[in-house]
Amino acid sequence: MKLNHIIKAQQFDRKTLEEIFRETEEMEKIARNGGSDMLKGKLMATVFYEPSTRTRLSFEAAMLKLGGELISTENAREFSSTAKGESLEDTVRIIGSYVDLIVLRHYESGAAERAAKVSPVPIINAGDGPGQHPTQALLDLYTIKKECGRIDGIKIAMVGDLAYSRTVRSLTYLLTKYQDITIYFVAPEVVKMRGDIKHYLSNHKIPFYEETDLLKVAAEVDVIYQTRIQKERFGENIEDFEKAKDKYIINKEVLAVMKKDAIVMHPLPRVNEITLDCDEDPRAAYFRQAQNGLYIRMALLKMILLG
Ligand code: CP
Predict the structure, then answer these.
(1) Quick one: 301 exposed, middle or buried, by C-beta within 10 A (0-12, 13-18, 19+)?
(2) Which of 41, 48, 157, 188 stands 20 to 30 A from 194 (CA)?
(3) Same-domain pairing of 250 and 193
(4) Per-residue buried b or exposed e for 156-182, using 16+ beta carbons within 10 Å of the residue's own CB
């Protein structure tokens, strides 16, 4: 199956997701056996206007493990000609004439869609402001499948910064492709889940509940998906950030009420919203989740560049 632009989670149907997960399982084997040269001769650009550790480096590692090559601008806001006033569209047109694929992270919602309209090569949205982060959602869903043995029937709690979290938004869209999903939203008042996502869930007949008692929800669910309160999204509204931070923290008390086979996920980076003493618990899946990002991104590069 050949993929083209990856812009938003809603673009995937269940058949495509299953094909991506099949390819990802193959990529895990390839990565563990030292890689491959299947993308020899292919060139990727990673163009990042916002900071990143996992997304940029896992895409770059994925390309190198498959024998391809890359060029990168990791602080495009400062070190690309954007600093001289060049538009995103012109930047993408130019970079697209040098490479076979562009991985783009931008600070504005909708930037990847704008880029895809003018790009001569496929665009992968690696996060567009508070918009979406579809490849994170793919690795999140893959992690749920791998850790829980299924996606259908999952009960999941999304916790923390639900208003601005592009990872939560994208994952929620993907979950609507599955059966018998139940979602609990647990968020401080100032960053509650936005109406557009709740409307989408209602339209897709996915039951969701807005709760305030994290311990009560933690005892019910198969997955807790914790998120960081993203200070950078509050602008000058620091009062709201102060109200939201530290409200919901995953700690040993929360782990104590969780089911024995439930898991804790987090897209990372973490600040203090999961205490360090949780890391040793086998249900702490967030570092395994981040590693799955490498395999998912190897699969996506292969499916875009080779089919
Ligand atoms: N999860 C995620 O997007 O991490 P980075 O910001 O480090 O890429």
Answers:
(1) buried
(2) 48
(3) yes
(4) bbbbbbbbbbbbbbbbbbbbbbbeebb
Are residue 198 and residue 121 in the same domain, yes or no? no
Kindly report the pTM of this predicted structure.
Answer: 0.96
Percent of all residues in the chain with a pLDDT value above 70, rounded to a whole number: 100
Atom of ligand 1 nearest to the CA of 267: 1
Residues having CB within 6 Å of any atom of ligand 1:
52-55, 127, 133, 136, 267-269
Cα distance between residue 127 and residue 76, in whole Å: 14
pLDDT given at position 249: 97
How far does residue 268's CA lie from ligand 1's centre (Å)?
A: 6
Residue 50 CA to ligand 1 center (angstroms) comes to 10
Residue 268 lies in a domain: yes
Whichever domain contains 256, its CATH number is 3.40.50.1370
Q: Work out the percent of the chain whose per-residue pLDDT is above 90.
A: 94
Residue 281 structural domain: 134-290
Q: Are residues 79 and 169 in the same domain?
A: no
DSSP H helices in 121-220: 134-148, 166-175, 195-203, 214-218
In tens, the pLDDT along 175-220 reads: 999 999 999 999 999 999 999 999 999 999 999 999 999 999 999 9
Of 142, 151, 114, residue with least CA distance to 129: 114
Cα(158)–Cα(9) distance, rounded to whole angstroms? 17
Closest CA to 46 of 97, 9, 95, 114: 95
